[in-house]
Amino acid sequence: MKKIFLFFIIVNITVVVYGQVQEQQNDSISEKFIKIEGDSVFQSSIPLHEAYVFGKLKFSNYDAKLKYYILRRKTIKVYPYAKLAAERLVELNDTLLLIKRKGKRKKYTKEVQKSIEDEFSEKLKKLTRTEGQILVKLVHRQTGNTSFDLVKDLRSGWRAFWYNTTAGFFNITIKAEYDPVNVHEDYLIEDILQRAFAAGKLERQESVLDYEYGSLINKWKGTATKK
């Protein structure tokens, strides 16, 4: 029953949140000529992600180490769903801007919901409570909105309140925000994500929230979980 309810919440949340590069030198032009996936553009440089030098993980004790690796497994498992949520949000909003009639907008939203249910229902049903809570936080990381607000925008204030109240029985709050600046566990999640991005284990999607990972490293250095 708990997993079915968790799946019901996550599906509604997810619905709302709908080459190779080569450099060539041109003899007649001083700028570098960059070819990207078959399209030619004139540009003197290409944007790159910040590169971080990760230190070796060190833990204060075995329990801290175990806690971190469990959190890593759960975070890597649910991150793709949060990434999908952000992508769906952009797609959904872009499409709804083109649909003027309220009835057709509602119909389209239901079609998106059914599509997501068909694609991900079995996987989402298998999420644990803690995995569901991490997913709720990562949805906030990727969209800038709490899951409560996203459900409220799609459904109604009353339904969002009902979701949050009922989820509370299972120690899940869809009002949860992602705050790696002030919450140590959220910082650990960010650390896990950045290491996974760098290792190519996860496809990078930048957070829309205002924080800088480099400064977080200095702030949380020497905590009980990781020294």
Automatic annotation (TrEMBL):
Would you say which domain of life the source belongs to? Bacteria
Which Pfam families is this protein grouped with? Answer: DUF4294 (PF14127)
The identity of this protein, by name, is: Uncharacterized protein DUF4294
